[in-house]
Amino acid sequence: MSSIPPRPAEHGRDRSVGELLAVVTSDVQTLFRQEIELAKTEVRQEAAKAGKAAGMYGGAGFGGYMVLLFLSLAAVLGLANVMDGGWAALIVAAVWAVVAAVLYQRGRTQMRTVEPKPERTVESLKEDAQWARHPTK
User: Fold this and answer.
1) Nearest alpha-carbon partner for 99 in 60, 65, 56
2) For a FRET experiment, which of 29, 54, 60, 96 has its CA 20 to 30 Å from that of 70?
3) pTM of the entire structure?
């Protein structure tokens, strides 16, 4: 995985254990640095996608808000033809209070399922750590 080629044996002799250990340590450090860069890149990409989606949700939310505002106004005016206007507005507000409570509860339940950690990077780091402990397996 490392881009550093192994050093050739000097003057026809094999490398010492200390030299080999230094090479392995250097390779492991390089590997972990690369894994950290991968995690940063992965998180940045996901954050950018989430930001774009949030902007779209915001625009859709504002459009939906305007639609619901005018539909609510129409409901109040329609009910005002058969009852006092104050009662009509109170009924529409109560309906919206129930809708808001249900949406809040469902959103809270959904938010509890969010996992913000980068799964691929965590799995890769576990594999790297296992290899570092037992490089011959």
Assistant:
1) 65
2) 54
3) 0.45
